[in-house]
Amino acid sequence: MPRRTPTRADQLRRALEEDIFAGRLKPGDRLDEQSLAQRFDVSRTPVREALRQLSASGLIEVRPRQGAVVAVITLPRLVEMFEVMAELEAMCARLAARRMNPAEREALKKVVRDCEGFEKKIDLEGYYAANKVFHDAIYDGSHNEVLAEMTRTLHRRTAPYRRHQLNRPGRISESLAEHKQVVDAILAYDADAASRLMARHVNVQGDVFTDFISTLPQGYVA
């Protein structure tokens, strides 16, 4: 699977995401465009784009007279985002099981093979890119443009948290196993199983959610 070369803005966004999740940037810290441009030795254009992406995902807020600051995420808000995301993706999987054509089903199997290759190499960035293609294939396979658009919008909001989860030891292997279960259900035209398995794959709950929260720096979640 060809991989898109990350833009400078993508690289800056990921670096800032890592700083936020690692606690090097704390809730309320100001993100000054000029200082960031000097730190990363770039112009302010990719910095602005990176901040726009972070704002779209809710990791930072743009406040009057303060500019961009690291956001405080409330725990109920985080839970609600994942609950809604799980339901939307479950609906996509349900419809994909019923509506995917033979070419789309073959393409979905190939994406899982790509995920498997990155999992074996423990290539986090490669796996995350393949993971996005996997979910996009199922959104498109639902053949419901309104649903796909809504799901992609929330996917962008939850993307930093989903990426961060993959840092947990063993999570990539777990994620791949969950992908395979979803695909098996879709290929078997089992809409109910596809929906249930996709919801379980996306929703962070129980021990997985506790482990996820425990990796966030103190003060990040209110």
TrEMBL record:
Ranges of residues in domain HTH gntR-type? 6-73
Task: Extract the GO molecular function terms from the UniProt entry.
Answer: DNA binding; DNA-binding transcription factor activity
Return the InterPro entries for the record: GntR_C (IPR011711), TF_FadR/GntR_C (IPR008920), Tscrpt_reg_HTH_GntR (IPR000524), WH-like_DNA-bd_sf (IPR036388), WH_DNA-bd_sf (IPR036390)
Give the record's keywords alphabetically: DNA-binding, Transcription, Transcription regulation
> Which residues, if any, are the signal sequence?
none
Where do the coiled-coil regions begin and end?
none
Q: SMART domains in the record, alphabetically?
A: FCD, HTH_GNTR
What is the official name of this protein in its record? Answer: Transcriptional regulator, GntR family
Taxonomy of the source species: Bacteria, Pseudomonadati, Pseudomonadota, Alphaproteobacteria, Rhodospirillales
